[in-house]
């Protein structure tokens, strides 16, 4: 199916639409596209007597020689106009560039020189491109068969198009909180678009980020929490549309649902300036699907190995004829078994969104997410000596009668935005999230040579978290002394109330991993082990950022953030930490030619508190980090293929380490760790139909540089960071046949792997390296006006035994053996 891309500064939802064969466009643009190429004689192509006042006003232009569609995109951005043209009209054409203080007429004359195209400026700052030689139209011409026009505004692509098959998206918002070209962003940022998620049949976040260099998975909360190692540092915090989604203070949460995700963006390195307290390795931001003015409906059924079944629904459409109200609804229901004995799960997810286009410049969105989860807590296996215990992969060390997690998550959100004019915009987002679950699990130490382990019970029937998030941003554009500024002023607040009640850590009956004997029920718990927690955290931040575009294709980014954060133990009514920090960052990027950028940056980070669980009233300094980064970015084939190679040096301080003062040995902030390495990423279309996404990270230095034990000794100083491989990477390709006889048939293949990793901070045992192979095949056909797709994926094709990760202790997660995933999907 031919892909239609329609973009404009004027919201399409607020104008009537005319239907073309390949899509919809706003009526006023459709009429321009229909009339201009057929009525104007060749002699009139060029300046028009009906031109708007925009043609006489002057603007500062600095557009390099480049493909015409990219030059027009830049001209639209710098001149505040819109363009109308057919895709075939500009295909293969180049612009000599535009430079100087010019009117729109003058800028267009420069931009179109040598292309054979003319233009007409109409009302509303709309520029219609036209071929200078126009044949007389046939009286029988049918407008419904004309190709859809393409409107260029701020972007040259539409990442929200459900049929967008791009493996490379040129813009991202996570690094700057503005829609900025990656080629002009002085940081390493990677986007995993929707088409990659679909081709790989991704149903969990850790499957998505394996396409990103320097990101590996860890096993948190016995497999129920999304956990990652980014540039050597553990990270269990994710973001949803830029809003923080923290784990429970005690570590519990559930894996995020993927049914309503448009794409996943990953910013490597510290992100404190825009996101507040975070881990320094990077920011994983999940971008959700939003309502569309063009109706779209999808029903998918997936079925896989080990009794996996998942049904998803995606529906979006206007609710009113004038597109004032739009909705989107995503739903999923999933049940699954496992290759592990007694392990199963059930998940329900519902996510409705309502968008209200109040005016051309003002929108408001209301959204809701409900997630129910019911699953087994699988602690994995322990190590024996320096390697994981050699037990059958199906053998579990849990208690099938009661080691379960069950609960609900509800998120309600409201956000709105208003454009004061073409240059200034204010936006506000509010989210409330409630997390309520019960959990029964166990934990153990390393196993003896004969297989005996000591297990302890961890029973918490009450875990409740209420989270309130606000962020307000003012974004603006202006010029001073030849420099173009894009500024962002923002403030945010996070209030998190969390409480839990349970029993820890009673010894369980004796257990041998080679001869397991399971309990028939939960044993009686000793009341003396009852415990409870009740904490409130308040985080407040103010930040300012300026993206400056200078002559000679230089780009500078500078910003600073002030944070205040405190934690209160509500049981004793005492503030356990109160911290302030100033986080700067800056970067320089030079783009001497359109396909090449050089950049360097420095960033500081404000991390989680080191004193949340202290009971002695002592306040320790917050965890902090600094990173230097430099790199090269390229894009080829008219922007269809891009790559980034980066070098980073990242250091984290004030990590909690063992205390030295008896009798409590409370932790103190004395730890430090550092990682250095090189990352390479490539994504996009190499040839028509051939898409690729590739990632590789080489991290020779990832060590604990300061640590101590309870006696004040060096402890783990000099040890390698746990789960930080020296080499890691992935490669995924798909090829879709372009010929008519095989059109719709697609094949894909890929590999993913890491080398040996340390299993814990003390480096007492290691997880062997591994490589897995995946395949896919799909066939797409049209059924009436609908699209029907069948697909089959195979993961771990060679059935390799491997270990996916650990929690920095003795809970080693076993990787899945060869598994199959089938899918049938109907779209219309």
- Report the portion of residues in β strands: over 45%
- CATH superfamily of the largest domain, please? TonB-dependent receptor, beta-barrel domain
Number of domains: 3
Q: C-alpha Rg, in Å?
A: 28 Å
Summed up, the helix count is 7
Text of the CATH class of the largest domain? Mainly Beta
Biggest β-sheet strands, sense, barrel: 22 strands, antiparallel, barrel
Oligomer: single chain
Write down the CATH topology of the largest domain. Answer: Maltoporin, Chain A
The share of residues in helices is: under 10%
Please identify the structural class as seen in this structure: mainly beta
Q: Average pLDDT across residues? A: 85
Shape, principal axes of CA atoms? globular
Detail the poorly predicted runs.
1-54, 133-156
Distance between the termini: 12 Å
Count of extended strands? 50
CATH arch. level architecture of the largest domain:
Beta Barrel
């Amino acid at each position: 199916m031919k892909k239609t891309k329609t973009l404009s500064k004027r919201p399409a939802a607020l104008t009537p639409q005319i239907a073309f064969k390949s899509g919809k466009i706003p009526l006023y643009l459709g009429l321009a596209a229909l009339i201009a190429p057929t009525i104007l004689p060749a002699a009139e192509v060029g300046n028009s007597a009906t031109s708007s006042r925009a043609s006489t006003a002057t603007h500062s232009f600095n557009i390099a020689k480049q493909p015409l569609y990219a030059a027009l995109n830049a001209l639209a951005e710098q001149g505040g106009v819109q363009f109308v043209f057919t895709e075939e009209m500009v295909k293969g054409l180049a612009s000599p560039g535009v430079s100087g203080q010019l009117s729109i007429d003058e800028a267009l004359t420069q931009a179109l020189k040598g292309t054979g195209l003319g233009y007409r400026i109409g009302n509303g700052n709309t520029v219609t491109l036209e071929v200078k030689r126009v044949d007389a139209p046939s009286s029988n011409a049918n407008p419904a068969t004309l190709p859809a026009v393409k409107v260029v505004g701020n972007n040259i692509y539409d990442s929200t198009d459900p049929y967008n098959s791009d493996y490379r998206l040129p813009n991202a918002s996570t690094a700057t909180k503005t829609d900025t070209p990656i080629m002009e962003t002085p940081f390493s940022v990677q986007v995993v678009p929707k088409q990659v998620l679909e081709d790989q049949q991704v149903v969990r976040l850790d499957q998505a980020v394996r396409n990103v260099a320097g990101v590996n998975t860890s096993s948190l909360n016995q497999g129920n929490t999304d956990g990652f190692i980014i540039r050597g540092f553990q990270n269990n915090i994710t973001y949803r549309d830029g809003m923080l989604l923290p784990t429970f203070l005690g570590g519990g949460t559930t894996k995020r649902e993927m049914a309503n995700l448009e794409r996943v963006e990953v910013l490597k390195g510290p992100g404190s300036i825009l996101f507040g307290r975070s881990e320094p390795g990077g920011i994983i931001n999940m971008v959700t699907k939003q309502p569309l003015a063009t109706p779209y409906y999808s029903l998918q059924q997936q079925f896989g190995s080990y009794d996996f079944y998942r049904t998803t629904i995606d529906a979006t459409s206007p609710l009113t004829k004038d597109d004032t109200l739009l909705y989107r609804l995503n739903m999923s229901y999933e049940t699954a078994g496992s290759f592990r004995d007694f392990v199963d799960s059930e998940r329900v997810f519902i996510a409705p969104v309502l968008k209200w286009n109040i005016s051309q410049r003002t929108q408001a969105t209301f959204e809701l997410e409900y997630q129910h989860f019911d699953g087994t807590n699988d602690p994995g296996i322990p190590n024996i000596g320096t390697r994981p215990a050699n037990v059958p992969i199906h053998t579990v060390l849990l208690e099938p009668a009661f080691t379960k997690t069950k609960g609900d998550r509800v998120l309600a959100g409201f956000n709105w935005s208003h454009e004061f004019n073409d240059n200034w915009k204010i936006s506000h987002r509010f989210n409330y999230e409630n997390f309520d679950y019960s959990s029964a699990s166990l934990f153990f130490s390393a196993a003896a040579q004969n297989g005996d382990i000591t297990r302890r019970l961890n029973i918490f029937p009450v875990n409740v978290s209420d989270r309130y998030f606000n962020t307000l941003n003012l974004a603006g554009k202006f010029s001073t002394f030849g420099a173009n500024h894009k500024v962002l002023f923002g403030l945010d607040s996070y209030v998190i109330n969390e409480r839990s009640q349970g029993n820890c850590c009673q010894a369980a009956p004796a257990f041998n991993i080679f001869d397991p004997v399971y309990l028939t029920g939960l044993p009686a718990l000793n009341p003396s082990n009852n415990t409870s927690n009740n904490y409130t955290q308040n985080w407040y931040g103010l930040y300012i950022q300026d993206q400056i575009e200078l002559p000679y294709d230089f780009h500078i980014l500078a910003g600073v953030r002030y944070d205040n954060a405190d934690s209160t133990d509500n049981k004793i009514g005492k503030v356990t930490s109160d911290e302030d920090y100033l986080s700067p960052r800056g970067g320089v990027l030079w783009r001497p030619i359109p396909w090449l950028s050089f950049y360097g940056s420095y960033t500081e980070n404000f991390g989680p508190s080191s004193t949340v669980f202290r009971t002695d009233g002592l306040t320790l300094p917050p965890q902090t980090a600094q990173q230097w980064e430099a790199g090269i970015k390229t894009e080829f084939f008219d922007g269809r293929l891009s790559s980034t190679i980066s070098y980073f040096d990242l250091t984290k301080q004030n990590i909690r380490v063992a205390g030295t003062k008896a009798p409590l040995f409370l932790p103190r902030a004395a730890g430090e760790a550092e990682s250095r390495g090189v990352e390479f990423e490539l994504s996009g279309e190499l040839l028509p139909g051939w898409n690729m996404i590739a990632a590789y990270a080489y991290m020779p230095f990832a060590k604990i540089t300061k640590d101590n034990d309870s006696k004040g000794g060096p402890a783990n100083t000099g040890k390698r960071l746990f789960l930080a491989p020296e080499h890691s990477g992935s490669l995924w390709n798909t090829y879709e046949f372009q010929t008519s006889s095989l059109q719709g048939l697609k094949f894909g293949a890929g590999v993913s792997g890491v080398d040996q990793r340390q299993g814990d901070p003390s480096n007492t045992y290691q997880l062997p390296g591994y490589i897995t192979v995946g395949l896919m095949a799909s066939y797409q056909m049209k059924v009436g006006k609908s699209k029907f797709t069948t697909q089959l994926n195979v993961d771990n094709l060679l059935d390799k035994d491997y270990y996916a990760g650990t929690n920095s202790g003795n809970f080693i997660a076993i990787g899945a053996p060869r598994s199959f995933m089938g899918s049938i999907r109907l779209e219309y």
